[in-house]
Amino acid sequence: GNSVTQMEGPVTLSEEAFLTINCTYTATGYPSLFWYVQYPGEGLQLLLKATKADDKGSNKGFEATYRKETTSFHLEKGSVQVSDSAVYFCARGTGGGNKLTFGTGTQLKVEL
Amino acid sequence: NAGVTQTPKFRVLKTGQSMTLLCAQDMNHEYMYWYRQDPGMGLRLIHYSVGEGTTAKGEVPDGYNVSRLKKQNFLLGLESAAPSQTSVYFCASSFPSPRDRGLSSYNEQFFGPGTRLTVL
User: Fold this and answer.
1) Among A60, A75, B28, B91, which residue is least crowded by beta carbons within 10 Å?
2) Whole-angstrom Cα distance, residue A60 to residue A79?
3) CA-based angle B97:A5:A91, to the nearest 5?
């Protein structure tokens, strides 16, 4: 079936460190891929998306590239800030109804 | 625009009680969704709706019912609450996806702030 696997957290980094959160998806068709972010006590917000192979989504210094050959959509940021502390979810489009399948989420904590 | 709003924000129920969670959106979205979020399990789809008067089951529909009488509202009901339904519930909405017109892409879903439900 359609699934998304992302690296388990929590991930703890120092401010200005490089961030990578891995995400892979099952290769059923060519789904749109998303990264959502959830700040404490809030709902999910779209961070970035990509709709086809080799597309790069980017926003707020975060980037992710749709890699068909490795079925991956890893999230990266060159220099994290304390304000980036949140839970990050990878997701893929799934079937009709604009449904999304989410990964289990990766908690990121950035310390000074 | 308020976006997606959810009522209530918090609720504590006793086993066997019933309640309804209300979701409202002011973005004229056709599609609406109810998810539950549990530790280590991400978001799981309970039910969804692709238009006024239509609903469909998601991944974990048992124990829940939904109704979409108006385009802007999507109600989630628990007829007889169980401790296993303790969770954070999120509503979301979206425009129809191009995929539903035979193309391959999907649209963003917009999420509400969540309802934290505890069943004792």
Assistant:
1) B28
2) 11
3) 20
Whether residues A98 and B94 touch (CB distance < 8 A) is answered with yes
pLDDT per residue over A5-28, tens digit each?
998 889 999 999 999 999 999 877
CB contact under 8 A, B48 and A97: yes
Strands (E), chain B: 4-7, 10-13, 19-25, 31-38, 42-51, 54-57, 65-67, 73-78, 87-94, 110-111, 115-119
Mutation target vs A (from B43, B88, B93; most A CBs, 10 A cutoff): B43
Q: What confidence score (pLDDT) does residue A30 get?
A: 77
Which chain A residue shows the shortest CA-CA distance from B113? A43
